[in-house]
Design brief:
alpha/beta, binds zinc ion, about 260 residues, two-stranded antiparallel ribbon
Length: about 260
Amino acid sequence: MTTSENQSPVAVPQPVVDSAREASRITVLTGAGMSAESGIATFRDAQSGLWKDFDPKDLASPEGWLADSDLVWGWYRWRAELVRRSEPNAGHVALAQWQARAHVDIATQNVDDLHERAGATVLAHVHGSLFEPYCSDCGTRAQFDGAADAPAEADQRVPPPECPLCGGLIRPGAVWFGESLPEAAWEAAEDAVRTADLVLVVGTSGVVYPFAGLPAIARSAGATVVEINPVETELSDMADHRWRTTAATGLPALVAQL
Ligand SMILES: [Zn+2]
């Protein structure tokens, strides 16, 4: 057996290659697994590791914000700094390359900016962004001023800045437990799965709604749904094809074959 230089060592399931070649509109839904190989820890990891001393409700809920906004702001600045120090992985890069050649919409649950830093355009940050803080009173978007006040420790309190327009506190741009999703982002994501021929579901566990409902909307609108995930998820049953691989391994192999 010989292998040519540009032959991918990762075997891409043929039905996945075929549906990607045939599709004229592709929507990619990405979750925490997309960024895991860039070293971004998730809330799920947090329960056992990095943030085990925190109750997520204290850090990511309107009640937690009201109770201790300095703790919440400090924690989000610390998280943003971890993201700033991490790099997009080969999966992020592959999606950016695919976007240059085809109609590929990306809707993500991730609050990091790794898709963008890989050169991709994100249609919808359905759960908000670490880098788009806004005023908790008037809603005006605030500038993200880099790592200016990033604390060294996760539990270091940092007073949030004040809104230049109304004096309200600037809050993190991530969607919290108990909050509804940003309407424009959600509508864009819903439209994208309704109009797609192919929907790839990458690295999402499928337990957080309403995002986890998008593959079902895609199915009922007639799209082919492909799951890319190293493990079985709540969404596996509804996928037309399940490919047990990671984002950083599978996506470059797929895009190389198109
Ligand atoms: Zn304001």
